[in-house]
Every structure is written in C-alpha cells, then in structure tokens.
Amino acid sequence: MRACMRPWPLFLALLAGALVASPSAAQEVPAAPGGAAAQTGAGASRTDPADGAVYRYIPAGSFTIGSPDDEAGRNPDESQHRVEITRAYWMAETEVTQGPWQAVMGSNPSRHSNCGASCPVEQVSWFEAIDYANRLSRKAGLDECYQTSGASVTFKGLGCTGYRLPTEAEWEYAARAGGGSAWAGGDDPDAVAWIGANSGGTTQPVGGKQANAWGLRDMSGNVREWCWDWYAEYPSGSATDPTGPPGGTLRVIRGGSFGGKAVAARSAVRGWQDPDDRLAAAGFRLVRLAE
After folding, report:
1. Which residues 6+ apart lie within 8 Å of 24 measured at CB?
2. How far is the C-alpha of 113 from the C-alpha of 97, rounded, in Å?
C-alpha cells in the first residue's frame, strides 16, 4: 500500500502550483448570510438559513443619489450628489413577508393578512422592524446591530455583522443597481412596481414584478420600506457611507406603495414617518454586511 501512494506527493505539488498560479482559484469571495461563500458579481444570490429569504450581493461602489432636475414628479429634497458606499452588503431580494414575520414575532399585524404568507408584512412600526432585525440576529448567533432602551435606539455601525435596516443611501444605491432609470428595474412603472394603477388596492405576493439589474424586486411599489436614517435635507457636497443626521423626529421611508402614484415609487423619492406609525402601506427589508 505504501508503494501505491508514492506518486501522490508529486501530484499534490503540481496541483498546489497550479492553484497558486490561477488567479481565480486564489480569489477570496465574500461571505453570504449564514456563512456560505458567495458567487462573485453584483446580484449573486444566497438563501439565508435564518429566515429562508433570498439575499442579493450588493458590491461597494459610488453613485449619484437623488434625481435630475427634469425627472417627472421630482421633489425639492431630491438634490443630486455623489455618494460612496465602501462596504459590500447583502440585501433581501424582497420585503420581509408575513410568514417569516409570524414565525419570529409570533403574530401577524398586517391589514392585508388575507393576501397570504408570501405577501409583505405591513402595519409594523420602525421600532418593530428594529426588534425583528435584532431577534433574527440572535436566532442566527450574530451580533445585534441595535442597542435599545425604551424609545432610544443606538446603531452599532455599518461594521455590525447582524441583520439591520438599510441606510437611505444603501437603499437607493441598491434600487438603482448601477442604472439611471427613474424606477428600480426600468422606466416602465407598470412592469416593475405594484402601484395604485395595477394593484387592485391591496398588497401583492412579493417577487411578481420585474427585478432590477442586481436581482432585487419590489424596491418600487408594493409597500414602502423603513430605512435607518432620521429624515433631513441632504447635506451639500459628496458623502461617504452616510447614515443620516444624529437625531430627528421622523424616520426615512422609501419605495412607494400599492396605493400610490407611479411618481411616488421612483427610486429618488424620500418619504418620512413617525417611527411609531403603523401603516398598511409600510413594511421593510433587511441587509447584512458582506464579510
């Protein structure tokens, strides 16, 4: 048996040399939710074991946030400026749905509960979305990204490895996916968004509309989505990894809804709500750092 194994040292040496010489073999790829290795490239997908949701890989990069002056429906608070996102992250392909919410939280607050488990959870406050993210982090054995004390919530920062809400800049960067369309996924709102003109006045199962270039769905329409940031006018000049002002009274909410107009579902539209509000047209999706 020992004689039969003698060729293996030479074979292993040759194999090791080939691997070192191959750039693709030596390349490190980011970690996916749940610890699995990711495929390279924007929009690569992984199913997360903590909640069963599909997450899409969002690469680091820079983009122009806001809308051009001639975009139909443009609001004064959509001033354009450059933003750099220095950390890659994973974003859920769709909003959190009623099924996972009920499994984690033990109840379903949705006004449109008859839409079903694959429809977005809604009528959840910003604080409840934060609580869900922390609970999911605990379930997965990850660091909780929010320290809470009553109505006080402290964000542990963009380096946190657990589940969290996207920042406003992360949300719009992912919605645009490197493109310049007014809506997430294209210039035809009917193709990419559930809005008042096509929804029948109710939420719809997630994923039924055209995805954007990075595989994200329902970024425009269905339900609006809570972000981390306090709402305020954009500061002047460029920004790197912005997380919003240090304080405020209203939280940013993005994306338009099943009951709104098409122009309200544009990627640049900035909504705001009291973080205690529970609205039938408001839900959220989660992100995680790509380690």
Report:
1. none
2. 10
Return the number of other C-beta atoms located less than 10 Å from residue 82's C-beta.
13
Are the C-beta atoms of 194 and 221 separated by less than 8 Å? Answer: yes
Calpha distance 252→234 (Å, rounded):
12
pTM of the full structure: 0.87
Helix/strand/coil for 45: strand
Q: What would the pLDDT profile of 269-289 be if each residue is shown by its tens digit?
A: 999 999 999 999 999 999 999
Q: In the sheet that 239-240 helps form, which strands lie side by side, from edge to edge?
A: 61-65, 81-85, 239-240
**Structure tokens of 270?**
């900035």
What are residue 9's phi and psi, to 5 degrees?
-55, -40
Contact criterion met (CB below 8 Å) for 59 and 74: no
What's the rounded Cα separation, in Å, for the pair 30 and 111? 38
| 260 touches 196 (CB < 8 A) | yes
Walk me through the domains of the chain, giving residue ranges and CATH numbers.
32-289 (3.90.1580.10)
